[in-house]
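My main concern about presentation is that the manuscript never shows what a single data entry looks like. An entry of this sort, consisting of the sequence and the corresponding backbone structure tokens, reads as follows:
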Amino acid sequence: MRYKAKITFHLEPTKVSLMLRHLGFKEIEDDTMQVVNVYTDVKEYLILLDVLQNNGIQYSEKTSVVYSKKDLDEAELLVMAPYHYCGYPQPEEDNGYKEFSYDMDSVCPTCSQGAVQNNYLRVKKLKMEKYQISALHWLYEFVVTEELKKLLEKSNLSGFEFWPLIDYKRGIEYEGFFQLKVNEIMPPMNSETLIVPAKHVNSCECRKRGYILEGQIKYDRKVIDSIKDFNKTEEWLGGGKTTWQKIIVTKKVYELFVKEKIKGIQFYPIIIMTKIIHLNCDYLFTLFIERNDKDRLIFKEGVHCQ
């Protein structure tokens, strides 16, 4: 896992060229606004910040996490997020798609978030390009090709179904593409997951509007045995007018997508929290674990402390 900084600042192009090339940066914009992407664990990052600060150049910095293949391969649960978007739900005007595809009685009366889908999504021409899976703008809902649909149906994975999409202009089912419909809801995230109020957005008491995630999602280990392979978070997240539930998948989903080289989504590892029990007693026993012939755990008392 590494951290990458996106540093944005304004400076005359000729001065920028001299400064950045001297520091070893090759991607230079021929504009007064410069955007530099650099890992935070290299010396160039510290030197760049030092130069900007010493010369009184104002800048903004946004940091993101870049996960290694090892991070992903070792994860037991992962977030499955869109990498590519193929279109918008219809009709677009005034969120009209919600009236067609969602139960508006299920939304929060204060913030209008939390709508439950109860009908097929309507779309115009989908721009899937080379991807087998994509997402619709404004929604955390995935669209898959017929090829990927068949692969998932044979996979024995759980927690999903396929809904047809409706061609908005013709009013008939869209051929060759389907919604990957996830209905299972995860237990609440571990309390150490950092969910904070979004800036410039009025949060709602229902917590379905105005909250964003900072850092990685964390779940208690005990939830792993009770969930499906595809799930949605109980929490609704998003810093704008629209919020959504993230898709959480098991290692089996990640491994299948990697094996079959499925493109169009990206994965982020989730931290699994193991509860540590602290004992406060007069005697502390050492516990030895062994298995009997019935594969049950046996705890034996050890030597107590003085």
